[in-house]
Amino acid sequence: MDRNILVVDDEKLIVKGIKFSLEQEGMKIDIAYDGEEALRLAKENEYNLILLDVMLPKIDGLMVCQMIREFSSVPIIMVTAKGEDMDKIMGLEYGADDYITKPFNILELKARIKAILRRSVKKVEAPITNKNIIKIRDIEINTESRRTFINQKEINLTAKEFDLLELLIKNIGKVYSRENLLDTIWGYGYPGDARSVDVHVRRLREKIEECPSEPKYIHTKWGVGYYFQ
């Protein structure tokens, strides 16, 4: 499995430590110290994951994340030093897949990265069979290549958005609570809360629904959670 990682942070000592630790795991690491450089590298290279600090010179991390989402669905982990819930939710709302707060344990960071890489790996070399394709009305997902199409037009989803859609579409009519989705998609022990689920559902609706305020696919069971119809 390719593991090409872009690490973006203006604190060079932190970057040096992360780079050394991840290279010990056999990962290939590129580095950017500001938002402009990060954006350029993200456009010029194919990465399996981007570790992106919120506070950056030239272009801040949240804006970089949003701009990357215009052309790529590469998994992004936001790094914030503030530790405030709003910053974390904002990071997810701008299209991040996960976040971690400084100061962090390098072992925890590596565990997060490995978990996302395992979920987002694309087995493009495998033959595509009908069992990999789920088609309901205008929506079609390929669970092998992790691609999504609406009316035969490909839609870019983040790793978490795809995981969420795949789970719901495979369990039509089953209502999942926010806590259940948080545990299933993000994993037990994830430090976020149910608002992370709401943010991702809203972003997913904006991408797959003709009218997100009146969804025809992902519905809300008030006081309970979400389900696919």
Would you write up a description of this structure?
The chain is of the alpha/beta class and 229 residues long. The chain has two domains: 4-120, Response regulator (Rossmann fold), CATH 3.40.50.2300; 130-228, Arc Repressor Mutant, subunit A. It has eight helices and twelve strands. The chain has helices spanning 12-23, 35-44, 61-68, 85-93, 106-120, 159-170, 178-186, 194-208, and strands at residues 4-8, 28-32, 49-53, 76-80, 98-101, 133-136, 139-142, 147-150, 153-155, 176-177, 218-221, 225-228. A five-stranded parallel sheet has the order 2-1-3-4-5, with helices on both faces. Helix 7 (178-186) packs across helix 8. The two termini are 35 Å apart. Mean pLDDT is 83; it is low at 122-129.
